[in-house]
Write a structure and sequence with these properties.
Layout lengths: L3 E10 L2 E11 L4 E5 L6 H9 L6 E6 L2 E2 L5 H7 L1 E4 L11 H7 L13 H7 L16 H13 L5 E5 L7 H16 L3 E5 L3 H7 L2 E6 L2 E7 H5 L2 H8 L2
Parallel strand pairs: 3-8, 3-9, 6-7, 7-8
Antiparallel strand pairs: 1-2, 1-4, 4-5, 9-10
Helix pairs in contact: 3-5
The protein binds adenosine-5'-triphosphate and magnesium ion.
Magnesium ion binds next to α1.
C-alpha cells in the first residue's frame, strides 16, 4: 500500500480551476518530485494534500485512510509535515521557539525529532538558536522551515521549493540534509526547479502541466529524454 495516494483531484480558486485531475502515488521511503513550469499547479497539489485547499473532486488517501478535505491540523496530526513555499516561519519567535511551537509526536514514532537532532542536521542553525526567525538569512529560514516540519515527526514530508532563491552553496547544504533524510527512509514529496539535483535525489517524478499530470517516470527515463525536459520543464 502506498503511503500517499492522490486520485484524480480537481481544485479551484473561486471560479478558476487550477487542478484538472491530478493523480500521484508515493511509496514508503520514496522521494517523489513534482516538476513543471511556474503556475502549473504544483503548490496547489501539495496544499490539497495538506488540507489547505479543498479539492472539489477526487480523493486523497494517506496510509490507506481517506483524508480528502480534512482540515490541515488533522492531516498534520495524521503524520504529514509541510515546509511551505515562501518558508512562513514565525518572525517574532526565536529559532528555538519556531522549532518547538508546532512540535508533536501524535503518532508516537520511535526516536522522535528533537531540537538537538534538527541542529545536527542543519548545523548552521545552532548558533542562531536564540535569534528571532525574522532576523536570520533566507537559507537559515529555509533550514528552519524544514526543521520545524520535522519536529512534527511526519511520516510524509512535503517540501515546496526548499532551495528557492538560495546560493549554490546553501542549496548544496539543503540537498545534503534532504539526502540524509532519504537515507533514514523518510518519505518525501519534493517540489523544486533544480532538475539536476532532483534527478539525483528523486526516485520517481511527476510532471505537472496546467493542472494535469502529463508524464511520470523514474530518474533514468527523465534524464535520458531531452525532448521531454525541453517541452515541459524548459531546459
Ligand atoms: N491563491 C490563489 N488564488 C487564485 N489563483 C491562484 C492562487 N494560487 C495559485 N493560483 C493559480 O493556480 C494556478 C496554479 O498555481 P500553483 O501555485 O499551484 O502553481 P505552481 O506550479 O506551484 O507554480 P510555481 O512554480 O510558480 O510555484 C496558477 O494559475 C495560479 O495563478
Ligand atoms: Mg509553487
Amino acid at each position: 500500500m502506498p503511503i500517499l495516494s492522490v486520485n484524480n483531484i480537481e481544485a479551484f480558486y473561486g471560479q478558476t480551476q487550477a487542478l484538472f485531475g491530478i493523480s500521484i502515488q508515493i511509496n514508503q521511503g520514496e522521494v517523489v518530485t513534482l516538476l513543471g513550469r511556474n503556475g502549473m499547479g504544483k503548490t496547489t497539489t501539495i496544499r490539497s494534500i495538506m488540507g489547505l485547499v479543498k479539492p472539489a473532486n477526487g480523493s486523497i488517501h494517506f496510509e490507506g485512510k481517506e483524508i480528502t478535505r480534512w482540515p490541515a491540523y488533522r492531516v498534520a496530526n495524521a503524520g504529514v509535515g509541510l515546509a511551505p513555499e515562501g518558508r512562513h516561519i514565525f518572525p517574532n519567535l526565536s529559532v528555538m521557539e519556531n522549532l518547538i511551537a508546532t512540535a508533536h509526536n501524535k503518532n508516537e514514532l520511535d526516536n522522535p525529532w528533537t531540537v538537538d537532532k534538527v541542529m545536527a542536521l542543519f548545523p548552521a542553525l545552532e548558533p542562531r538558536a536564540k535569534i528571532k526567525g525574522g532576523r536570520i538569512s533566507g537559507g537559515e529560514q529555509q533550514m528552519l522551515s524544514i526543521g520545524r516540519a520535522l519536529m512534527t515527526n511526519p511520516k510524509l514530508l512535503l517540501l515546496d521549493e526548499a532551495t528557492e532563491g538560495l546560493s549554490p552553496l546553501l542549496r548544496a547544504q539543503i540537498w545534503e540534509s534532504i539526502s540524509q533524510l532519504k537515507d533514514n527512509h523518510q518519505s518525501i514529496l519534493l517540489i523544486d526547479k533544480h532538475l539536476d539535483s532532483l534527478l539525483r535525489i528523486g526516485d520517481r517524478h511527476y510532471i505537472v502541466e496546467k493542472g494535469y499530470v502529463v508524464w511520470s517516470g523514474d530518474s533514468e527515463e527523465l534524464r535520458s529524454d531531452q525532448k521531454l525536459q525541453q517541452r515541459y520543464i524548459g531546459i
